[in-house]
Design a protein that fits this description.
The chain is α/β, with parallel strands linked by helices. It has helices spanning 7-16, 30-43, 58-66, 77-80, 124-132, 186-193; strands at 48-52, 69-74, 90-94, 107-113, 135-146, 156-159, 165-170, 176-180, 197-204, 208-215. The structure holds S-adenosylmethionine. The site of S-adenosylmethionine has 20 residues, from α1 and α3.
Length: 216
């Protein structure tokens, strides 16, 4: 798999890891966050969860409270180091979301937060097939991500030929990165997963959306 569109994003999240969790203190997001912090872990009660692109583990900490086990993965070691401050029951591993081959095919839950928006449109089906190759029948798959309200803080700066959109992100020291940031719609998510799952559910909040289904 080539990662041309991925490079800027990886560097950005590696360099931003120490201050990444600031996004969870934005005042306008607090009400949605309290709802998600309760709803998400409930769906993974007693499940063996694979978390993809876990970053600094904001969602990992809540899921770990209810799941039987959780493996938090990310391509960037620097982000995973921040997960150590949470529960000792959390296992971390450097894993590329587009290459899950090294993992067992035994997960009964998969979660990815704020990740699908970074998947290029032409890689979405491939990524979904990777997820499915690591799960058992009846597994719960859940993705959450930003609603378009996020563009009020970070406007779209470019759209490429495939319809992928990009934002310019700046760190405190003024380093700038171009990051692919899409806003998948419910129909797009259903189209990518309808033949693979059942019980699809899309929840739209002011600042986030949540999409979940059960693997057949
Ligand atoms: C927006 S952050 C989300 C972090 C966390 N899930 C959250 O919701 O706070 C996106 C994450 O994707 C990770 N990432 C980028 N490319 C990746 C890839 N190819 N495979 C796995 N993770 C990747 C970044 O390192 C970063 O931690």
């Amino acid at each position: 798999m080539s990662h041309g569109k991925d490079k800027g994003m990886r560097a950005y999240y590696r360099d931003r890891a120490p201050i990444y969790d600031r996004v969870y203190s934005y005042p306008e997001r607090q009400s949605d966050l309290r709802y998600l912090e309760q709803y998400i872990p409930e769906q993974f009660t007693d499940r063996d969860v694979l978390e993809i692109a876990a970053g600094t583990g904001y969602w990992t900490q809540f899921i770990a409270d209810q799941a039987s086990s959780i493996l938090a993965t990310d391509v960037t070691e620097e982000t995973l180091q921040h997960i150590e401050k949470y529960s000792e029951s959390i296992t971390t591993q450097v894993v590329d979301a587009y290459d899950l081959g090294q993992l067992p095919a035994t997960y009964t839950g998969v979660f990815a937060g704020l990740w699908l928006s970074h998947v290029p449109k032409d890689k979405l089906s491939y990524f979904i097939s990777e997820v499915h190759s690591k799960t058992t029948s009846g597994a719960v798959v859940m993705f959450i991500d930003n609603s378009a309200a996020q563009c009020e803080r970070l406007p779209i700066t470019r759209t490429d030929d495939l319809g992928n959109t990009y934002q310019s992100r700046e760190l405190d020291d003024r380093r700038r990165y171009e990051v692919l940031k899409n806003f998948p719609t419910e129909p797009e998510l259903l189209a990518a997963t309808c033949s693979l799952g059942r019980n699809h559910k899309f929840i739209e909040l002011d600042h986030y959306w949540l999409f979940q289904y059960t693997i057949m």
